[in-house]
Amino acid sequence: MGLFEKIRTGLSKTRKSFTGLLDSFTGANDEFFDELEESLILADMGAELAVSTVDELRERAKHEGLHGGDEIRAALKESLTAALAEAGDTRLRLETTPSVILVIGVNGVGKTTTIGKLAARFTGEGKKVLLCAGDTFRAAAAEQLGIWAQRAGAELVRHEEGSDPGAVVFDGIAAAKARGTDVLICDTAGRLHNKANLMNELSKISRIIDRELPGCSRENLLVLDAGTGQNGLIQARQFSQSAGVTGLVLTKLDGTAKGGIAFAVNRELGIPVKFIGVGEQADDLLEFDPDAFVEALLS
Questions:
Q1: Which parts of the chain are beta strand (E)?
Q2: What's the whole-model pTM score?
Q3: CA 94, CA 125: separation in Å to the nearest integer?
Q4: How far apart are the C-alpha atoms of 77 and 96, rounded to whole Å?
Q5: Which terminus of the chain is more solvent-facing, meaning fewer CB atoms within 10 Å of its CB: N or C?
Q6: How far apart are CA 133 and CA 159, in angstroms?
Q7: Is 92 helix (H, G, I), strand (E, B) or coil?
Q8: Is the CB of residue 117 less than 8 Å from the CB of residue 299?
Q9: Which helix (H) or strand (E) holds 34?
Q10: Nearest to 130 by CA among 112, 113, 115, 114
């Protein structure tokens, strides 16, 4: 299956909420635009973006004489692609040796799986990868990460369960320096965004990285379950304050009709989506391409 088809298949539940409505368009009328606005909101694009997008389409339909599903679909694609572009570069910046990826998020969103898929991607590119088991609280977290490391051909640094996560990250950095690692990927404990002590610990880990690897290329990737909708936006706000999120990984897009959260986080927080998860296989973690995403969403 090609890249576009993977995205298109993964977005099938979200796409179904749009396609029939767009196909029914026969010319500018208030009922159509009211239904479109509701569909965008239900897909969790956010009320502000939904209203502004529909207002723009309403004006275009009136002044350009748009008629038929193909014309209104093309106009909507232009608007949504432009909205995604506002958040900035969707590519990872990994220019130093080592570069660091700090992976954060609440429990259950797919952090460990995401780390394993990233490791497989990088080792497949010929990079030397080291995984750091910074989640020392969840039982068997390090064992699960170890399984992914073995599958991906990556190395692993871990401590005993209950150890200081900051100490694990410190040792991971030392090992990455000594072994000539290209990419160090650090797992962190799943934490609720409203637990101050755990968020403070995340800030501590961030400071350790800054101190031990000053000037390194670094990505702080927040993993969000796309199905959580607007709650994901709340998580992104809180994690941004503690760790300076540089990009998002949206997982489980293949199981939700709320893929619009990509647009909401882009617009309201200015954080670009960098990867999307559309399945369970290692190659189902896809680099985010705004044009392909919108095309797959509306085609």
A1: 99-104, 129-132, 155-157, 183-186, 218-225, 247-251, 273-277, 285-287
A2: 0.87
A3: 13
A4: 36
A5: N
A6: 8
A7: coil
A8: no
A9: helix 30-42
A10: 115
